[in-house]
């Protein structure tokens, strides 16, 4: 063994150890490793974790807040209208520049795996082509999956159905959808069937924006679940948002939960954005507008987390930091028990890897690709509580980013 990089004194899930990396692969994990390497980093007992996984983001609209105007109502639907205007001016360079800037921001905070949606409702497919180009350009330091996402609905325009199929032919990794935004409920159901047909035809993953609305009658999740079960695609299928699940009556929710367990699909919650977008038509009590994260997790279903937006027409804030997302999930989902807080961390890491279907090459284990992060924290709970600085990002065995933790020095003796 001839390590190229060694991380010493790492706090891992099962205790303190050193990690040796040769080129881009983890070759040893043991306490007090009797090896040397040209580069060694003393982690001094800090938490060393697999990188964050951003399960759900829209890189095509990232960093466009205020263009051409602000979202005054704060609703999903005004956001869609603003984006419809903004996307008329999209160019490949515009997409590539903003997406790469956002990816660098995310990677600098420990995210090395990303699933982005690309709006494929425009005849030019500029957003898709820009994001596919970025996916290929950054692949040596960050992994990006692109979902063909029909923002205006598969049946919302005469050419949209052809456009999503063309997007898949051009190289999208997953088929998306938005059944609750189709013109009728029947169109919504039909769109889900079409998504599964395309995924089977082209051997793609599925990630559907599903029931992102407070309407307790928006019930496309049951259609997605049934299709996943009948086609056998199961863990290749993800339902994003599913915020209406937070408004379903408990009798229906109980029945649905049983079906969901059989279907084994993945869920993605986006707590930062949905706590702000949803509940806008409520007076008081005002709903939280999130899916049933804690109950899905307790039922053994795979739930992961996403930022969804960084400064775009739907959410003008956002830093791309997955610890911000996990922190908000702890609060909004009331997952404040220690095991629950740890689970929120896992939703931003290992659960995300399952959603992206990359778990075989993800994680800190012998023979796996050397992707890992060092946090200025001793454990997951503290990392979320303080939204700890990620001091080192190791990508493909190389030190990609180093960040110095802010130091506080009192200048006065205040007792
Ligand atoms: Fe989204």
Automatic annotation (TrEMBL):
The keyword Calcium does not apply. It comes from the Bacteria. GO terms for molecular function: cytosine deaminase activity; isoguanine deaminase activity; metal ion binding. The keyword Hydrolase applies. InterPro entries: Amidohydro_3, Metal-dep_hydrolase_composite, Metal_Hydrolase, Metallo-hydrolase_Enzymes. Residues 40-400 form the Amidohydrolase domain. Gene3D superfamilies: Metal-dependent hydrolases, Urease, subunit C, domain 1. GO terms for biological process: cytosine catabolic process. It holds the Pfam family Amidohydro_3. SUPFAM superfamilies: Composite domain of metallo-dependent hydrolases, Metallo-dependent hydrolases. Keywords: Hydrolase, Metal-binding. PANTHER family: CYTOSINE DEAMINASE (PTHR32027:SF0). This is Cytosine deaminase. The gene is codA.
């Amino acid at each position: 063994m001839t390590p190229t990089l060694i991380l010493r004194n790492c706090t891992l899930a099962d205790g303190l150890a050193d990690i040796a990396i040769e080129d881009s692969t983890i070759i040893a994990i043991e306490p007090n490793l009797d090896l040397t390497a040209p580069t060694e980093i003393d982690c001094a007992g800090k938490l060393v974790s697999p990188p964050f996984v951003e399960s759900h983001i829209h890189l095509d609209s990232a960093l466009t807040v205020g263009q051409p105007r602000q979202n005054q109502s704060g609703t999903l639907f005004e956001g869609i209208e603003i984006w419809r205007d903004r996307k008329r001016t999209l160019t490949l360079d515009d997409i590539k520049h903003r997406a790469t800037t956002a990816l660098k921001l995310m990677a600098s905070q420990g995210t090395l795996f990303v699933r982005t949606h690309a709006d494929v409702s425009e005849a030019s497919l500029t957003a898709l082509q820009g994001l596919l180009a970025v996916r290929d350009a950054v692949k040596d330091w960050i992994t990006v999956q692109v979902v063909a996402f029909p923002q205006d609905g598969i049946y919302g325009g005469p050419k949209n159905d052809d456009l999503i199929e063309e997007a898949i032919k051009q190289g999208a990794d997953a088929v998306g959808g938005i059944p609750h935004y189709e013109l009728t409920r029947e169109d919504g159901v039909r769109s889900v069937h079409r998504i599964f047909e395309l995924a089977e035809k082209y051997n793609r993953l599925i990630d559907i924006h599903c029931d992102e609305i407070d309407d307790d009658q928006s019930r496309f999740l049951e259609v997605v679940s049934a299709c996943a079960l009948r086609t056998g695609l199961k863990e290749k299928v993800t339902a994003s948002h599913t915020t209406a699940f937070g408004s379903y009556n408990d009798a229906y929710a109980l029945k649905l939960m049983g079906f969901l367990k059989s279907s084994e699909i993945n869920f993605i919650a986006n707590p930062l954005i949905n706590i702000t977008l949803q509940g806008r038509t409520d007076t008081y009590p005002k709903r939280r507008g999130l899916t049933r994260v804690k109950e899905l997790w307790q039922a053994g279903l795979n739930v992961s987390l996403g930022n969804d937006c960084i400064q775009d027409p739907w959410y003008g804030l956002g830093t791309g930091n997955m610890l911000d997302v996990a922190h908000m999930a702890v609060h909004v989902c009331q997952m404040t028990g220690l095991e629950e807080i740890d689970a929120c961390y896992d939703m931003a890491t290992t659960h995300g890897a399952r959603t992206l279907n990359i778990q075989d090459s993800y994680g800190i284990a012998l023979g796996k690709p050397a992707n890992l992060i060092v946090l200025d924290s001793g454990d997951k709970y503290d990392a979320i509580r303080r939204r700890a600085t990620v001091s080192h990002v190791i990508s493909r065995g190389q030190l990609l980013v180093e960040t110095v933790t802010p130091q506080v020095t009192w200048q006065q003796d205040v007792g």
